[in-house]
Amino acid sequence: MHTSLSRGMITTDLVLAALFALICLPFALLGDAVDLVALAGFTGALAVRRRSPAVSLGVAWGAAVVQMAALRDLQLYDVAVLGVLYTTAARGEQVVKWLGLASAGFGAVVATVYLGIVKPLLDGASLLGSPSTAVGTTLGLGLLFVASIAVLVLAWTAGLLVRSVRDSRDIRRREELANRERALAEYRYVVEQERNRIARDMHDVVAHSLAVVIAQADGSRFAARTRPEAAVEALDTIAGVARGALGDVRLLLAELRHHEGDTPQPVLEDLVELIERVRSAGLDVRFTESGERLPLGTGHEIAVYRIAQEGLTNALRHGDTSAPVELRLAWDDAGVDLEIVNALRPDAAAGESASVFRHGIPGMHERAQLAGGSLRTEAGDDGMFRLSAQIPAQPPRAA
Question: Which residues lie closer than 8 Å to 250 by C-beta, 6 or more apart?
Answer without folding.
Answer: none
